[in-house]
Amino acid sequence: MEKIISPIIPLYVMIPVTAILLIAIIYNLLKNRQAIRRKLFMTIRMIIVLALIFCVNLRIMTPYKETKVNTKNLDVLFVVDNTLSMWADDGLHGNSRMEDVQDTCGRIMESLKGANFGVVQFDNYGQILAPFTQDTTLVEDAFDTMKEPDPDYATGTSLETAYDPMEELLRSSSSKEDRKTVVFFLSDGESNQTESGSDTGEDFSSLADMIDDGAVIGFGTEDGSTMRVNGEYIKDEDGERAVSKLDEDSLKSLADELGIDYLYSSDTEHIDNKTGSILKIVEDIISDSDLVTYADTYYVFLYPLMLMLIIEIYMVMRKRTV
Predict the structure, then answer these.
(1) pLDDT score, position 201
(2) CA quadruple 246, 249, 250, 252: dihedral, nearest 10
(3) d(CA 43, CA 52)
(4) First-residue to last-residue Cα distance in the chain
(5) What is the CA radius of gyration of the chain?
(6) How confident is the model at residue 157 (pLDDT cuts 50, 70, 90)?
């Protein structure tokens, strides 16, 4: 493995600045040839200091080990309802339902470290925000992209819009050898449809064979709450503040179709028990990573740089006292 550099100040800035300073130092030496001998020692000191500063800025890094990664043979799919009702403010501790969703997903990710995580969002339509990945930063960024929908275009919750992207990622996971697939479906279940059941034009039971475990998690309350977008309350057809209510019947029906449990978002103990039971069906895999850990070595140049600065201070003080 070769050394690498990671400059603090970009080289396209540092090289010209260093060259200008070097030219200035040499010019100062040569402009009075009679004083060259007297100035030579000072010039050498200044060039050494400049070279050391340049080396520190290069931030030369050396590889010292190839990392071992503890992974799990587990794909975890978050399916998140991002319709208007999910921004109702009857979450825990004054949160919106969506804020509770993000907190719940963060808790699950912490419990299932080493798994691959994927994110599907659905509102008027479903979309994959993150394919299965171990890059948790990418997954967190996917959650950060979920914003309040425009009430002029929002059509309400229709769980069936999540079907196609769910199927795509579940088929991707099931095609992998020796993988376990877990789904967490997070929604308030409130529907813009009038028929009973889980409001699924698609039969989600066709996905059950590709799911090993997971849960449908309900958000909101039976009493319901108002919704605000950009600080403005959403109004119903009568001009009154619209109220969104948790529809547990719809979510329980969906859980039955998927072959997983239904849990309520505030029941953190049951959610923790669920992630604990999932850990029992997966294996830890210790594997070599393509990533190499690099160690900073710039401090090696700091010691002589400090010494040179001490010498320079001493020379200045000595000159003043003479």
Answers:
(1) 53
(2) 110
(3) 14
(4) 53
(5) 31
(6) low
Beta-strand pair 126-133/261-264: unpaired
| Alpha carbons 199 and 181: distance in angstroms, whole number | 24
244 near 85, Cβ under 8 Å? yes
For CA atoms 91, 96, 98, 101, the dihedral sign is negative
Instruction: Name the average pLDDT for the chain.
Output: 85
Quote the CA–CA distance of 18 and 7 in Å, as a whole number.
14
Q: How far are the Cα atoms of 78, 208, 214 from residue 75, in angstroms, in the given order?
A: 10, 15, 11
More confident residue, 238 or 310: 310
What distance in Å separates the CA atoms of residue 283 and residue 73, rounded to the nearest whole number?
Answer: 6
Q: What is the pLDDT of residue 284?
A: 61
Structure tokens at 169: 């990622």
User: Of all helices (H) and strands (E), which one includes residue 108?
Assistant: helix 97-111
Outline which parts of the chain fall under CATH 3.40.50.410.
74-282
Tracing tokens 């050494």 back to the chain, one arrives at 48
CA separation for the pair 195, 248 (Å, rounded) = 15
- Kindly report, residue by residue over 275-301, the tens digit of the pLDDT: 999 988 886 654 444 556 677 888 899
- What DSSP designation does 227 have? B
Instruction: Give the closest residue to 140 by CA, choosing from 169, 160, 117.
Output: 117
How far apart (Å, rounded) are the C-alpha atoms in residues 138 and 130?
A: 7
pTM above 0.70, yes or no: no
- Name every residue whose Cβ is closer than 8 Å to that of residue 131 and which is 6 or more positions away in sequence: 118, 169, 172
Q: Which whole-number Å values give the CA distances from 222 to 18, 25, 91, 242, in the listed order?
A: 68, 77, 12, 14
Pick the CATH number of 74-282 from 3.40.50.410, 3.90.190.20, 3.30.1370.10, 3.30.70.20: 3.40.50.410
Q: Distance (Å, rounded) from C-alpha 322 to C-alpha 318?
A: 6
| Structure token pair of residue 190 | 């409130």
